[in-house]
Amino acid sequence: MMARKLISAGLFLMLALLITSPNxxxxxxxxxxxxxxxxxxxxxxxxxxxxxxxxxxxxxxxRLAKRGxxxxxxxxxxxxxxxxxxxxxxxxxxxxxxxxxxxxNFRTTMPDVVTLPQVFRQNGYHTTSFGKIFHRGLTxxxxxxxxxxxxxxxxxxxxxxxxxxxxxEGRNLTDGKLAWCNWRAAEGADEDQPDGQIAxxxxxxxxxxxxxxxxxxxxxxxxxxxxxxxxxxKYFDLYPLESLKLWQAPKEPLADPAAALPGGAFxxxxxxxxxxxxxxxxxxxxxxxxxTDAQAGKIxxxxxxxxxxxxxxxxxxxxxxxxxxxxxxxxxxxxFELSARAPLLVYAPKMKAKGKATARLTEFIDLYPTLVxxxxxxxxxxxxxxxxxxxxxxxxxxxxEAAYTQVTRGRFAGYSVRTERWRYTEWDxxxxxxxxxxxxxxxxxxxxLINEPKHKATVEQLKALLKKKx
Length: 470
Known about the structure:
The structure is a single chain. With 470 residues, this protein is α/β, with parallel strands linked by helices. It has one domain: Alkaline Phosphatase, subunit A (3-Layer(aba) Sandwich), CATH 3.40.720. Helix content is 31%, strand content 19%. The protein has helices spanning 2-20, 22-30, 59-67, 81-90, 94-97, 116-121, 140-144, 194-212, 233-236, 264-271, 275-305, 337-340, 367-374, 456-467; strands at residues 35-42, 69-71, 74-75, 126-131, 155-157, 168-172, 182-186, 216-225, 229-232, 312-318, 344-347, 356-358, 362-363, 403-409, 412-418, 422-427, 434-438. The chain has an eight-stranded mixed beta sheet. Helix 3 packs across helix 11 (275-305) and helix 8 (194-212) runs parallel beside helix 11 (275-305). The longest helix has 31 residues, at 275-305. The chain is globular and about 65 Å long.
């Protein structure tokens, strides 16, 4: 009898240890936590219908904004692909990650950092990456220097354009001087392009997760509207050239510091664009925007069909903004609003402010702590962002004082601080110039007020705020 009691007690103890062991506990707890669908578009500025664009046709993302929250003042930390993605996926600023180019793998500077998907993987989630989440491109050279992170994912897959997807009307807008500046209204269907294949495979993953009930962190990295500007012809047909309007320079000259815009071969090539080439560039970019919208829509529709939406957090964002001819620039890498600001749409099943927008300042480094909070996990290391989960219930809460973006120009850096009213920028700590813009009266940042005596106190306040950057 005593032996039976001892055996029973031993079995009970073993069962208790099994239930409370870290691995088993993670899987058990995470099965009750929300899934995460993260969709990242490449080089997408706030050119969406839900952000007020009268040109872009984006019905699916507009629908997501109506069911979730639109963030009107969301800022990247570095307006270049690899630094921006490294920052948002680690929850750390570029000065901390030390990633400020497209060629350095973050594991060389932070070998032990736990990334956003990695913390989910460690807590029993199945983590999947399709396309470009960590920085990478589409060429064979990109594949050889891939920067994806094996510690973050259970599954990683990349996709290539089919031969049919390379056929169709198009041309290089710079006579070959800039190899990337190429558009093509491609033959074939969506799935002849990588983004169409990504959407298809993402849906397959959702169908599998709906069957096996395993919690998931699914990251979908759509390549468009990034160059080369290739999309199926039907998306180009949405934007006849005659329906588009080019940016018009203000009557007063723009007093930009020499460091405000990059130069070199890009600047020279852009300066030779004809109006026809400018319109073709704009049309090709917008075609990519609508192509992106369609793929995101397919995936979100699959969530609904599979009845996964009620337990899935959806995040859609662009990794940074983009210029479409403003100030003569057709790219990113500036510290103007168009480059630093990007779209951010968030849906959480239990959020109270569904269908609302918030004007509160948010940064992409805030995404990591937000998703950790919403899913009941714990951050594995100190994060430099702040969870915006409370805004999902009350978009008018008093919030961040400032958002910060930086970029490098050769041997010196530029740092910009954005408050709800002002943008203040220093190049090489002011030695290469400084900028001050009042967004109440000058939302396009045309009038640099840095030398106006009446704003001296404001400059000093913003200078101090810039130094406070964590």
